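From the methods appendix. Each design record in this collection lists the tokenized structure first, followed by the designed amino acid sequence. Records were kept in a plain field format so they could be parsed without special tools. The example shown here is representative of the layout used throughout.

RECORD:
FOLD TOKENS (364 positions):
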């Protein structure tokens, strides 16, 4: 049985996706049942029941993801009759495929599809992440998420029977071995040339951090959903999830995590960032005490035109820690600037101007 996620299966799951009047995506349980090859809908109702229970056990409001609805189906000669159905969120579909018949190829493919898409959707819906443009910002964000979800994972593991520090170290190694092709934490340290005192997560780029975040969130959820209650099962679950993430990376043509390069310690980036935050606060304080009148412009296009004798759109993008394409989209009106980004551009410009005023050429 091939569990490889193909383009055809991706398109199949996407083709049955609908959108309600508020623009929210959903799947009809009737359509999903047919795609998952359940010829008798009554058997699929039992799967939905298990998924609802799993949602409840995870502490997530069931009604947010499973909504009972009535659909109309044709019965010939233009007549229709009502049938019971369920309006499913992407997360609900994920829980359903986790509880469906694992012997079916399409179910295995659905498990991969909805696991990936659910996590992608979660990250994309974080407004804070949407504003990030640089690799450093993404690393800082994902590292914070990793810290938070590692804590949740530790709590779920403890509930499963992973009690002391030694047990937890073994549990973590199982997750690493699944994701890194059999490597333990020590093996990864050695492979990447890290010292014992250096934490693996602190030297990961955003791609590797995202893979490990996926491993942590999915393992925590599986431990709670399946109410796992032994160290051995917890360890094997962590390994299985890690291996599934690794398989997904392979299927998508990505680089294996052990082959990704190490990067500068996140601690150093945080230290530098904190220095510049303090520096900018000092400069902003000076600026706020300055009675000078500032020129205000209605649009970014007007602002760039006023600045054009001095700096280009590319230069402004770099000053504001944005990509050039993002700045040009704002300029052309293709993308609307959020109030948060307006504040950010203003602060960056004023800080840049204040910093620039501190540079002079000797000999004048």
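DESIGN:
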């Amino acid at each position: 049985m091939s569990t490889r996620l193909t383009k055809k299966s991706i398109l199949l799951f996407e083709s049955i996706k609908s959108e309600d009047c508020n623009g929210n995506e959903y799947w009809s349980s009737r359509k999903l049942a047919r795609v998952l090859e359940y010829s008798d809908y009554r058997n699929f109702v039992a799967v939905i029941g298990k998924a609802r229970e799993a949602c409840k056990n995870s502490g997530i409001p069931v009604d947010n993801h499973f909504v009972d609805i009535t659909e109309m189906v044709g019965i010939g000669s233009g007549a229709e009759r009502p049938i019971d159905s369920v309006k499913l969120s992407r997360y609900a579909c994920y829980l359903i495929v986790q509880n469906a018949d694992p012997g079916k190829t399409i179910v295995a493919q659905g498990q991969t599809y909805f696991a990936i898409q659910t996590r992608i959707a979660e990250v994309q819906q974080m407004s804070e992440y949407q504003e990030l443009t640089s690799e450093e910002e993404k690393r800082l964000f994902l590292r914070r998420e990793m810290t938070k979800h590692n804590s949740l994972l530790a709590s779920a593991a403890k509930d499963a029977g992973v009690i002391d520090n030694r047990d937890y170290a073994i549990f973590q190694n199982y997750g690493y071995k699944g994701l890194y092709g059999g490597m333990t934490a020590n093996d990864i340290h050695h492979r990447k040339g890290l010292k014992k005192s250096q934490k693996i997560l602190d030297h990961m780029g955003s791609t590797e951090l995202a893979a490990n975040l996926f491993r942590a969130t999915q393992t925590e959820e599986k431990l709670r959903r399946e109410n796992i209650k032994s160290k051995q099962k917890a360890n094997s679950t962590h390994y299985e999830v890690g291996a599934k993430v690794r398989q997904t990376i392979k299927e998508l043509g990505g680089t294996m995590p052990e082959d990704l390069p190490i990067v500068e310690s996140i601690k150093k980036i945080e230290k530098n960032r904190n220095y510049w935050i303090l520096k900018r606060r000092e400069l902003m304080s000076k600026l706020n005490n300055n009675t000078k009148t500032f020129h205000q412009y209605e649009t970014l296009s007007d602002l760039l035109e006023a600045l054009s004798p001095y700096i280009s759109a590319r230069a402004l993008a770099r000053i504001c820690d944005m990509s050039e394409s993002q700045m040009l989209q704002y300029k052309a009106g293709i993308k609307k600037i959020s109030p948060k980004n307006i504040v950010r551009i203003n602060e960056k410009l004023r800080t840049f101007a204040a910093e620039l005023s501190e540079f002079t050429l000797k000999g004048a």
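APPENDIX NOTE: Residues 69 and 85 are 5 Å apart (CA to CA).
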